[in-house]
User: Fold these one by one.
Assistant:
Number 1:
Amino acid sequence: MNDVAKVEDTLEQFRELDETYKPDLDKVDEAFVQKLWNEQRFFDTNMAAIDRRAIRVIKPGIWNHNEGPDFMHAEIEIDGKLQIGDVEIHVRSSEWYAHKHHLNSRYNRVILHAVFFNDDFNLRTRLQNGKRISTLELLKWIAVDTGDLYDDTEDTTTAEGICRVTGQQLNMEVLKGVFESLGRERFLEKAESMRLLRTRLDFEQLLYEGIMEALGYTRNSKAMRELAQHVPFADFDQKSELEIQAILFGIAGLLPSQREKPLPIEVTNDPSIVALEALWSASAYAELPARMTEARWSFTSRPLNHPTRRIAAMSRLIYQCQGSLMMYFLPIYEKAASTDTQKSLRTIIKELRALLTLDPTGYWEMHSNFGTGGARKAGLIGNERGVDIIVNKILPIAYVWALEAGSQKLQEAILRLYSLAPKSQGNKITRKIDEQIFTETQQLRHLSPTGKIEQGVIRLYKNYCADRLCDLCPILEHDAVLLEES
């Protein structure tokens, strides 16, 4: 089969696969759904219950870790009326009756039954006093991505505890294996969180939202994801790069005409900006109520990280992919399935990075924001950010595609790519673990860390160190600490 035929065959498989996915609820526990509710990881604050009542959460409530409803004293607007009471969480809606809450007066203060998946025929949930309340199916409203909710804790400090590994001599080979194992677990959790989103997103939208979120870094990740949800990927079909920019900037509320503080006339009269403003005015989106404003965005001190430049980067990527982000990357995944040499796999990773490392065109060759320089013809997406997108978004989504395609060979190939992906520049978590675990003679860099090892370091911190679960520490459990000779 020649290369053209292979690509056509892959495209045909992709089209057949791109349908609604049914979740494996056995992999979802109630603790995950409780975290989802507690952090309100939803792409829209205006939701609808299964009985079509409008739901808007003002306060999710106080998490109750004892008996009784899961969240107490929540404030929720239901059909425009503010209600104050409790919220009960379940994976399946049928669990309300299976747990006999309808016979327990303790649950009569519940104002909303929030479930991950609705598997019941009842439009409303019955309380012990005979009253019926709305059921909200959360699965329809989950935002990208929820992989970190599989971690046991949020990013908290370990300053109050003393690490048993600090200052100890380590078996570096064993330690490397520990981090690689943790890195694999973190990858599979990310893939599972992406797979859950397949219940409402096709692969194109899933990848589009994921890349947008990654481009936002920490400060703008939620805003970039929100922007992607306001403008579906399918709406860009057959549009020019400038049209794509105009729509994204317009919805984001970042065009010069939308700014709170007017820009100088010499900026607004630039032919590129005049063209963008005209294309925005001509778009159907300009007729809709404003979705986002300049206040939603954070402009850092580093010009290349400005949200305007990141939106320009996504616009270029959308234009380059010619209607399919998945097919932009998919043929390269397929190449990985037919090789197992590290040299070939590293070449494939470089090809993936090259697809993301886009050169700027037009206005963005020399600008980081409207009227602001600081770009110096720098790439719209740098190598480090490209690696981050590959490790955290592209490969997990590719793995989900391989799962749904039933291709064990492709699954293994993607895991091999993940194992060889380079590390990033690091973050506060990797730096903290480096200081906490290693000594002057033994350091994280001596492990020749890959992206997989780096992800393992993050998982160690989030799942063990942050909650001081020292007795369960994988480093101690796998005897990576060398015992002193007596």
Number 2:
Amino acid sequence: MRPFWLTMTTMTAFLALPFPDAALAAVASHDTIDLTHSGFGIAAVAVFVIAYLLVMGEEFLHLRKSKPVMVAAGIIWALVGIAYAMAGDTHTAEQAVRHNLLEYAELLLFLLAAMTYINTLNERRVFAALRSWLVSTGLSLRAVFWATGGLAFVISPVADNLTTALIMAAVVMAVGAGNNRFIAPSCINIVVAANAGGTFSPFGDITTLMVWQKGMVSFSEFFHLFLPALVNWLVPALLMSFAVPNEQPQAVSEAVRVKNGGFAIIGLFAFTIVMAVCAHNFLHLPPVLGMMTGLGLLKVYGYFLRRDEITNAIPKIRGPETIGNDITRERPFDVFDSIKDAEWDTLMFFYGVVLCVGGLGTIGYLAALSQAMYVDLGPTWANVVVGLLSAFIDNIPVMFAVLTMNPDMSHGQWLLVTLTAGVGGSLLSIGSAAGVALMGQARGVYTFFSHLRWTWAIALGYVASVWVHIWINGAMM
């Protein structure tokens, strides 16, 4: 067997074959170099493509999406490090990866705080109480279609679109059990509404959060997207509503009480968002500082809430002769349960994406892509294409790539790409986390092909929303 060091030497020499000597000399001054035509660059692209094919096949392979991209990130940066080390530069690659890690750390902590609040509200049965109220209202199926879509549009700017979609889909499944003509279009409506609602708020989607934290769009400027986002939802909703039977569903009675402290936590969450906005807008500090302070307040409040529940817990007796070990108590509140239940696979996937895209950017591919899209094609058409790409590829890597390219665009164009990246995923059921989750929740009823039947209507909404943005925000373009 060939010695390990000889194998690695041979492999490195092979990768370096297309690597021009002039480029090797260029890094002596610690400048980034173009590795796009080198063996290192080509190998990095191949690794990323393979990893993302595995991500796209998650539903069939049952391989969590974070695993392949985390491995790919390590391999890509190893290739970058070897390339720069061969050129005698031991600093540029390190500085680049540390910059990407800092960006990821800010988003990780921000999202962790937001997810903890959402999980806590779920544990306090706030969302269950909302679902219970909707189920017991006695609305017609068409009215439920509009109500769930409207609430998804309104809630998703604060809660993430995945949580919002799951809550509203639970209502649809409960009200229209067995009525596929109602469930399928209602699920599509929820996906479109949740994705559209998430675009006019920094808290509605990871992509909007990235744009806000990067400083490309201020907090107040996001609200310029309200009307385009509303049009994006209303156009397909109106067309689909005619296919929803206007029947009265079977009456369902379900009562759920919000647990102690639920409404106070809603107030704390609102105050946390205010702190994040004020930290960014007035103190010029990263918004994550406000979010983590708010998480600290939640943990302090949770301490008193837990003490109260432990002190006042009343044993539930299973029978008149029950004694000792047969007494059961409801589990008292623990904020660390909410932290534990955060979407860690998504957070780790985000790590892999940030590092993979950052590595490809260091190699030089994003600069070439930026030239092809934003210079040759033009920013408006390029941003429309970004939205179409989001239907096939998760909008997180797409938006992070745009931010890493950092093309010279007006505020209106940054708002346009925020809109298109957010709503473009609605074109296909696999284009957003909300769509993928609902295919699992309404398995066999809401499917890729049932969504595809209405893609033409969603595309009309997509075109209409872009047109409305250009029309009403033309002065910013």
